[in-house]
Design a protein that fits this description.
- The complex is a heterodimer of chains A (371) and B (508).
- Chain A is an all-alpha fold and 371 residues long.
- Chain A has a domain of 247 residues: ABC transporter involved in vitamin B12 uptake, BtuC (Orthogonal Bundle), CATH 1.10.3470.
- In chain A, 71% of the residues lie in helices and 1% in strands.
- Chain A has 15 helices and 2 strands.
- Chain A has a two-stranded antiparallel ribbon.
- Chain A is globular and about 75 Å long.
- Chain A starts with a helix and ends with a helix.
- Chain B is of the alpha/beta class and 508 residues long.
- Chain B has 3 domains: 171 residues, P-loop containing nucleotide triphosphate hydrolases (Rossmann fold), CATH 3.40.50.300; 69 residues, no CATH class; 157 residues, P-loop containing nucleotide triphosphate hydrolases (Rossmann fold, 3-Layer(aba) Sandwich), CATH 3.40.50.300.
- Helix content of chain B is 33%, strand content 23%.
- In chain B, the strands form 4 sheets. In chain B, strands 3, 6, 7, 8, 9, 10 and 11 form a 7-stranded mixed β-sheet that branches.
- In chain B, a hairpin with a 2-residue loop joins strand 20 and strand 21.
- The two termini of chain B are 45 Å apart.
- The model of chain B has no long low-confidence stretch (mean pLDDT 87).
- The chains are: A mainly alpha (371), B alpha/beta (508).
Amino acid sequence: MIKKGLVNFVKNDLASISVVLIVLLTFVITKSNPSRLSFTMVSLSKDIAIFTIVGMAQMATLAVGQFNLAVGAMGGVAGMVCGYLINIPYEGSMNVDTYAQAEIGLALPWYVGVIAALIIGFIVGAIQGGMIVKTKINPFIITLALISVLHGLNMAVTRNIYFRNLPEVFKAINKNTIPATTTPDGGQATTYGVPVMFIVTLVVMVVVWMLYNRTILGRKMLATGVNTRAADFAGINSGRYITLAHGISGMLCALAGVLTVSKLGAAQTSIGDNWMLYSFASAILGGTLLNGGKVSIFGTMIGAGIMMVVNTVLTLLKISAFSHQIFIGALLLIAFMLNKGREALIRQQERAAVKVQDDVQSGGSKNEEFA
Amino acid sequence: MRGDTILELKNVTKVFPGVVALDNVDFTLKEGEIHALMGENGAGKSTLIKIITGVHCQTKGKMFVNGEEVIFNSPMDAFAAGINVVHQERNLFPTFTVAENIMIEHYSNKLIGKVDQNVINKEAQKYIDLVGLDVPPTKNVEALSAGQKQLIEIAKALSSDAKIILLDEPTASISVNEANMLIKLIKKLRDEGLTFIFVSHKIEEIFEVADMVTVLRDGKNAVDTNTGEISTPIEKITRNELINRMVGRTEEFESLEIRDFSDAEVVLEAKGLRSTDSPKPKSFYLKKGELLGWYGLVGAGRTEFARTLIGYDPAIEGEQIINGEKVKITSIAQAQHKYKLTYLSENRKEEGLFLDHDVKVNLTSTIFDKIKGLFGFVKLKEEQEIAEKYKNELQVKTPSLKQHVRNLSGGNQQKVSLGKGLAVQPDILIIDEPTVGIDIKTKSEIHRLMHDLTKENKSVICITSDMAEMIQIADRILVFKDGEIVGELINTKSYDEMSKKIMSMIMN
């Protein structure tokens, strides 16, 4: 009975990594300075919010059996587009010694910037997907080349400036919480709420979950991912869904880019620079298959959570930020190895279940003899 | 010594979690014989092969080589004991030369060592001659035909001083001519003292090549009911007795009635149709309610032509007519939904099924757009009902609709593949090799199903390389050869008459 429960637990996609996350979180809570804990948690939740979306951007391409190395570059481009559209230009001269601050900007309403960024993200992604489908060149080459092209464009066009005079409403996505955080004058905050950014991510997760679990578009994309040829023979135009998946990926990158701009309070070209590893890590830790055909939305959030919490843990342990990458990399390797074993176990169990069923139906009794 | 027992298995049992794959199986192999190992899918053949070749270790029971007990912990142990296996799938390095592939086991054990190409080529030539191949040792393996690769594998086994060679479905993927040559070679090598275990589904072939036959059924020895022995000399058993031992009953050769379609209307017609992959123009017609068989050897161009008809490889010349209307089909979706024409691939694992998705999604994958509701949401209830319907209609054995198709048996996978095609409610079905690798019971179920479909006034084209099957089920037979239709026969369902006619068409 206990063994069966344990097996079911391990079989659950999310179980093993949830445990890891809980252990890590417990560590953070017990080790941090109580007066700073709430602050830490709020900041952590924002990071998780952004990287969950980055992970889902990768997941969208993994779902159709592809991948997107250019997640960061797409997020960066979208962030800068958004920044340019909503930035309120400074009047008069600026202190060029400290910052290359932008004197340009269209000062459009914040939502125009956000929507435009999402559209740009979708278009860039769809172009990437379209190129992969039409040229039949390996996606590795195309997305790798696009990192360079997009990043280069971003730097060349903007001359690497910062858009930092952003509308207050836009910055509020980062600052505000629900319910509102109350801070007595000049003192520590007394109550905390959930950051708006985190709620945005939750809403997006629900939408993405619906997409893959409840819509025909999701079914077709997953079918394309698990077996492209079989999808073609079932009358599903796989090329179209690969293109669309890249578009969705680009759009999610753009969203993550916009959220990052809000968090930093500035649009800058370095946005997205460290996304690639995290995007794969959180999606795959969460149970999305590298080969396509299976996604896990909640798992991606837990995956992103682990990445971000590990960073916090390392900081709490006073381990130099320079060494963080070693731990993140090692963690990934271990997690993937454990996952491999888990998958083998599931396969074995499923097969045994079918065999037993076969025997029962064909009236065989050979299992009883050896029971 | 010839006739001595060279390999013996006693009371071998193999238990996998939740299932007993082999149950007290005995097997005796004598030196210098060709011993056929037979059984339906799931009978335990593969498990037995894996135990003999050291891939698995038996749970219970003993194994003896030349009278000495052996325990194989890895394939290397079996290899060292002189047992070599030629798998169904080729295990060659395509970019290496013939000689390198044959001699790969003899490469220097030093990590960095000089490979003397001349020595290797010369040494390999001996084995190339031995298997009667006519290719230079320096040729790359990827340039060879399937049959030639098969011979290279045998040459490789010979080079390793194997005493026992296990051939797993050796003729499954090679042409008839190559298969005949292979059988001659095996007999010649047997006469020179080698011992073979020959695993095959093709009963006719077994009668041609084997000396002895051992049958497995449901993981147990199916003993000879006359003598009580586990093995029977091939000359002492008839075709029907053998089938009977494999399935536990006599094969039902249902004689389906001979039907006349001279008055029926034509539903599908091609006139000089050709495409990139099917370059020779072909013409044929299909009548309403007819079961048309396309016979030919592997590579005769039947699959390519079917794929032209469904728009996977669109026609570049000629006419295609459906229900009297000239059509130009450019995509599978169009063929499926607009013209009610469906094709089921012979390659069900790669082109027919989503192995890592569940039965439900597989069954509804062709009709996603029909279960699309508001805002593109899936109509869950309809999805469930349709999947349930085809699962029941085809009697798919699965614990639930949520089961991944990968975990089902071959026969049940094929049923899912068929169900997915039927879900479109097609008027014309093209079914490519529907019974390859499928147990006899499911095979007859599929035959019955195709026949039932024609009774509902649907038209079926069945592509098969199994002549007995073709003659049993088809109303009319088209014979393909080298990418052309070389003949047409009304099927009288008399095996002797039809098979002679078909063969003469193919030989000319």
